[in-house]
Amino acid sequence: MAEPRVALVTGGNRGIGFEVCRQLAKRGLRVVLTARTLPKAESAARTLQADGLAVVGARLDVADGTTVAALARNVAKQFRGIDVLVNNAAILLAENQDLLDTAIDDFRSTFETNVLGAIGVSQAFVPGMIAQRYGRVVNVSSRAGQLVTMSTYAPAYSISKTALNAFTRQLAAATKGTGVLVNSACPGWVRTRMGGPHAPRSVEEGADTLVWLATLPTNGPTGGFFEDRQPIEW
After folding, report:
1. In this structure, are residues 83 and 33 in contact, taking their beta carbons and an 8 Å threshold?
2. From residue 234, how far is each of 55, 176, 226 by CA, in Å?
3. What is the rounded distance in angstroms from the CA atom of residue 6 to the CA atom of residue 75?
4. Is 134 a residue of the active site?
């Protein structure tokens, strides 16, 4: 009998990331739920373990390369590797600031987590996917990063999501024909700490497309941008 697939979710201790961990585990995957601190990761993992789900907590600060390297070593010891990577970790700074008034340090911090974090984690784990000829990478993006609709909302966050989409295209091209499928997805406006209590979508709804992309069949799409399981414009 084949071993269960292994998924790694960044920023998995709450919100959409936590729900993605739950849904993937319910589908029979073994899930590595990560958070910036080990206590947060382990606490969230215990909640899902109490429901009989195969979830382990691990420390991962995507903006700290030493934690990325440490997790890669630990995953190699504990599992044969990972099959699914959901780059969910993100921050939203200076949401209501105008572009010209947004501190350059807010741009740096945002890109460090939202873009370079996803790149660094992918560099650590995607080569293993290529080697095993199977992988699914889901970059959690946003319509805020859409060039066709972009206006003045949250400049640092919006521009970072555009860059994340560009990374998706690059990584999809770099892994073409290897069995690794790479896509971006917008979960919509979801009731989380980031989205706020008045957002129209539940975390279950927000996680749906991410989980769909994380479990695509062999002939699934790669290099796309999706919302509600449908392709959307860049």
Report:
1. no
2. 34, 20, 10
3. 10
4. no
Instruction: Confirm whether 195 is domain-assigned.
Output: yes
d(CA 81, CA 134): 11
Task: Say if CB 222 and CB 183 are below 8 A apart.
Answer: yes
Determine the Cα–Cα distance for residues 38 and 232; give it in Å rounded to an integer.
Answer: 36
Query: What is the tens place of the pLDDT at every residue in 181-222?
Result: 999 999 977 777 777 787 777 889 999 999 999 999 999 999
26-46 mean pLDDT = 98
Nearest to 189 by CA among 39, 16, 30: 16
Q: Confirm whether 171 is domain-assigned.
A: yes
Cβ-contact 88, 14 below 8 angstroms: no
In a domain, 31, yes or no: yes
Domain that holds residue 116: 6-231
Does residue 84 lie in a domain region? yes
Q: What is the DSSP string of 85-113?
A: EEE------STT--GGGS-HHHHHHHHII
| Domains contained in the chain, number | 1
Catalytic residue among 18, 107, 157, 226: 157
- CATH code for position 202: 3.40.50.720
